[in-house]
Amino acid sequence: MAHVAPTSHRRATRASHRGHRSDDGPIQITTWLGLTFAFVLGLVLTGRSHVGVHAAGITLLLMLVPLTVAVFGTAFKRGFGSGKAALTTAASLAFVLVKFFF
Questions:
Q1: Separation of alpha carbons 13 and 16, rounded Å
Q2: Residue 64 belongs to what H/E stretch?
Q3: Residue 75 located in a structural domain
């Protein structure tokens, strides 16, 4: 007959990870500044004449738009943190959207 460990020795399930998310606080300033820097980098890359570099810039910007929208959605729930950095990110997002859609 196989040996089965008694229930007192078994590891407990991690109930704290099931369906519960802790509130981590407002979005950090480094997140906003990182997104703004990435937008500027994407715009610089799209301005280059090399086809691959230009395509890399467009790809970066296309990936950043939904990510930034998601960060703003989370910021509405948790708080914006630094308002000036959030406004800078919003301005860079608006500039990219205006550039590509108009």
A1: 9
A2: helix 51-78
A3: yes
Please check whether residue 27 is in contact with residue 74, taking contact to mean a CB–CB distance below 8 angstroms: yes
Q: Give the pLDDT of residue 15.
A: 55
Radius of gyration in angstroms for the set of CA atoms belonging to the chain, rounded to a whole number? 22
Closest CA to 42 of 51, 31, 54: 54
Cβ count near 48 (within 10 Å): 13
The pLDDT tens digits for 19-45 are: 555 568 899 999 999 999 999 999 999
Tally of domains within the chain: 1
- How far, in Å, CA of 8 to CA of 39, rounded? 54
